[in-house]
Amino acid sequence: MSAVEQYARAHIVTDTADTAADEHRAVPVALRYDPDTDPRQVQVTLPGPHEWVLARELLEQGLRSPVTSGDIRVWPCGRVQAVMEFHSPQGVAVVQFESKTLVRFLRRTYMATATPVGR
């Protein structure tokens, strides 16, 4: 099975003075899934770099309703956006995505783990 990597644009949402000016600027985010490493988890890499690992199921559930696991929260925001909130000793990062980007990524992860017919 091969790894799935997708790059997305997201918005960091915060009220701190350092980033308030950049709040409306899209930042690059890498979404990665490697079924050979762990078929239950995905990685989200934010600029910095800051890498977070979360359950693929958490991401999927968070597109429909608010969910929390440890230092990570995911919830839908309106009809077309989703939010991921990451807590660390350095602070909180709140990242807003277009839901369709995350849905596309999840579909690709499930296609990567699907067993071909005839095997």
CATH superfamily: Sporulation-specific cell division protein SsgB
Rg (CA only): 15 Å
Q: Given the C-alpha coordinates, what overall shape results?
A: globular
CATH topology: Transcriptional Co-activator pc4, Chain A
List the strand order in the largest sheet: 4-3-2-1-8-7-6-5
Q: Provide the β-strand percentage band.
A: over 45%
Integer count of domains: 1
Order of helices and strands: EHEEEHEEEEH
Helix content: 10-25%
Q: Low-confidence segments, ≥5 residues, pLDDT <50?
A: none
State the distance separating the first and last CA atoms.
14 Å
Count of helical regions: 3
Assigned CATH architecture: Roll
CATH domain class name = Mainly Beta
Give the class from helix and strand content and strand pairing.
alpha+beta
Largest sheet: 8 strands, antiparallel
Q: Tell how many strands the DSSP assignment holds.
A: 8
Whole-number mean pLDDT: 87
State the main characteristics:
119 residues, alpha+beta, single chain, Transcriptional Co-activator pc4, Chain A
Description of the molecule:
- The structure is a single chain.
- β5 (67-69) and β6 form a beta hairpin.
- The radius of gyration is 15 Å and the shape is globular.
- Strands 4-3-2-1-8-7-6-5 form an eight-stranded antiparallel β-sheet.
- The chain has 119 residues and is an alpha+beta fold.
- The model has no long low-confidence stretch (mean pLDDT 87).
- It has a single domain (4-113), classed as Sporulation-specific cell division protein SsgB (Transcriptional Co-activator pc4, Chain A, Roll).
- It has helices at residues 17-20, 56-62, 99-113, and strands at 4-13, 26-33, 41-46, 50-55, 67-69, 72-77, 81-88, 91-98.
